[in-house]
Design a protein that fits this description.
Elements lengths: L15 H14 L4 E6 L12 H4 L5 E8 L6 H5 L4 H28 L5 E4 L34 H7 L4 E2 L5 E2 L7 E8 L20 H5 L5 E11 L2 E8 L1 H7 L3 E3 L18 E3 L23 H14 L31 H5 L7
Antiparallel strand pairs: 1-2, 2-6, 3-6, 4-5, 7-8, 9-10
The structure holds iron/sulfur cluster (2 copies).
Length: 355
């Protein structure tokens, strides 16, 4: 019996309209929650280090996808009782497992038919931008006029340019299906596909400001708006203090009290810090996957936004019950509650030699 392999040279993607429909159906069947297409001309004027044409100069289309974060993955943080699921299944699992499966499989579908396709998710670790790599002379462009390694396509902007939704005041990408509960992936390809219009549906961000007031890191400055023009559309979002988010999202609060490094909530860094009242952990939990450590559970930029959108009923993915069901909790670190010594699971979890 001969080996079996895939069919190559299939010739059904020559018409951009038909190809777009076929590719979108495949993407949904492969696990994307929404899929849209932007023609490469929409990236005209992109900064060099964010320009997909630097990666594939012959690119004709970008296919954008959203992958929903299950609302249930935020339930445990919302109730204050189960924190790892959002990091593990909510975005770590999507970023490192689920999304790559879809963008790789769709790229294979396109390459089987003779067009090149780059599967692109959140793994862009050798960044030449906004990290210190390039500016620290850890890399150089391979030739004058080319971008430094590694070009990082702005995924939220890509989702916007593929017609998948809006960028909110919080700079979170908001889809009409899931609001801020999305991870975004793309495929860059030299396949010509009929583009989708830029999103022009019901207003998703109404500038309610809940993301700003609920962010434990006070990371948003709505008086300092970042304004960009994307394919002829004016888009703006609040300036974000990424350093402040970087500390607060892990559950840490800066303090003027001098705390020895080994007694700090986060040992790393040269700043004195303690657990904020939005963290029940005495020390920052270890990372899940490469990055997962979202103790704040995106209290402002995601959960407050979900509650705002819940109240307005604007999302397509509707639920029988509201997301927020009880008052928001805070940990009183001056008088922390005792562990629940009478909880049944503590008894039942103890294994004996007879087990
Ligand atoms: S919380 Fe309100 S202002 Fe912030 S992004 Fe969501 S809808 Fe926009
Ligand atoms: S992740 Fe948390 S700290 Fe960061 S912007 Fe969102 S709400 Fe603020």
């Amino acid at each position: 019996m001969a080996i079996m392999t895939r069919d190559f040279g299939l010739d059904d993607l020559n018409d951009p309209k038909i190809a777009a429909e076929l590719v979108k159906k495949q993407a949904l069947a492969m696990g994307a929650d929404s899929v849209g297409i932007g023609n490469i001309e929409r990236w005209a004027g992109a900064p060099t280090q964010m320009d997909p044409r630097q990666i594939m100069p012959e690119a004709k289309s970008i296919i954008g996808f959203t992958f929903r974060v299950n609302r249930g993955s935020l339930r445990g943080i919302e109730e204050g009782t189960f924190f790892s699921n959002y990091s593990a299944m909510g975005y770590g699992g999507i970023t490192y497992l689920y999304m790559p499966m879809t963008v790789i499989n769709l790229s294979k579908y396109i390459e089987d038919r003779g067009y090149e396709a780059i599967p692109y998710g959140h793994q862009s670790d050798w960044k030449g931008i906004d990290g210190e790599g390039y500016s620290n002379h850890m890399s150089v462009p391979v030739a004058s006029g080319r971008a430094a390694p590694d070009v990082a396509v702005h995924l939220r902007i890509a989702a916007y340019l593929c017609g998948l939704g809006e960028i909110g005041l919080s700079k979170m990408f908001l889809s009409p299906q899931f609001g801020p509960r999305n991870r975004v992936g793309i495929v860059i390809t030299d396949l010509e596909l009929e583009p989708d219009p830029i999103y022009d549906g019901p207003e998703l961000c109404n500038k309610c400001g809940a993301c700003v007031t609920q962010c434990p890191g006070n990371a948003f400055d709505p008086n300092n708006m970042i304004k960009v023009n994307l394919a002829g559309h004016d888009v703006e979002w609040a300036n974000i203090d990424c350093a402040a988010c970087n500390i607060a999202f892990r559950g840490a609060e800066l303090t003027d009290d001098e705390i020895k490094p080994e007694d700090r909530y986060m040992e790393h860094g040269d700043f004195s810090n303690k657990p904020g009242d939005w963290s029940p952990f005495k020390n920052k939990p270890r990372n899940l996957y490469n990055t997962g450590q979202a103790v704040c559970g995106a209290r402002g930029c995601t959960r407050a936004c979900m509650i705002s959108m819940d109240a307005r009923g604007v999302l397509e993915n509707k639920f029988k019950e509201k997301f927020r069901r009880r008052p928001q909790w805070k940990v009183d670190w001056e008088n922390p509650p005792a562990n629940p010594s009478d909880a049944i699971y503590r008894e039942s979890a103890i294994l004996t030699d007879a087990d």
